[in-house]
Amino acid sequence: SDPKLWDQIRTAPTGQTRHQGGLFTWQRITARDWVPGEAPRIVAEDDFLVIASEVSAAEWDQLFAGLRAIFIAGCIGTFGLAAISFGIYRARRSAVDALSASERNLDVTLWSIGDGVLATDGEARVTRMNRVAEQLTGWTLAEARGRPVEQVFRVLHEKTRLPAAIPVASVIARGKSEELVNHT
């Protein structure tokens, strides 16, 4: 029914072409290649068979309608995830910036105090100290950070010169501030 298409089939053993908005695919086979035993005698104008498949334009559209819907949903989902990720990134970045500013303010405050200030974590390991504390202990913050407070801040009884208790463990346990005992 389509002489131009038939010419393509006769000249190419396999092929695929657009046809009336659809897709036409073919493969030519010769009977003697597929019949076992002695070569059969074929009397015909052409000595081959054509296996062909045609997907019409309407069928093509149906095949891809689902894929289009999946692609559109995927794009929307990807855009949504990107927007959420960007929002999370911005919120995190803002929190990190606020924390950095707070840390800088704390450092400035700590370094401007005229008394020795030494801070620890919940395990009584040094996390911060100001310049006065560095001078009093003989340790720099870089050297003291992460070490047990008892190692950095040694308290002695002024008369006996024996080690005195450091109230850090009690402060951590009770959650209330304490002062050093007299004569230290």
Detailed description of the structure:
By secondary structure, the protein is α+β, with helices and mostly antiparallel strands. It has 7 helices and 5 strands. Strand 4 (118-120) and strand 5 (126-129) form a beta hairpin. The protein is rod-shaped.
Question: What are the defining features of this structure?
Answer:
49% helix; single chain; three-stranded antiparallel beta sheet; 184 residues; 5 strands; two-stranded antiparallel sheet; alpha+beta
Helix and strand arrangement:
Elements: H1 3-11, E1 14-19, E2 22-30, H2 31-34, E3 48-55, H3 57-112, E4 118-120, E5 126-129, H4 131-137, H5 141-144, H6 149-152, H7 168-174
Radius of gyration: 43 Å
What level of helicity do the residues show? 40-55%
How far apart are the termini? 111 Å
Report the total helices.
Answer: 7
Order of helices and strands: HEEHEHEEHHHH
Task: Return residue spans where pLDDT drops below 50 for at least 5 consecutive residues.
Answer: none
Q: How many strands, which pairing sense, and closed or not: the largest β-sheet?
A: 3 strands, antiparallel
Widest sheet: strand ordering: 1-2-3
SS elements, strand count: 5
Secondary-structure-derived class? alpha+beta
Q: Could you tell me the mean pLDDT? A: 86
What shape does the CA trace take? rod-shaped
How much β-strand is present in the residues? Answer: 15-25%
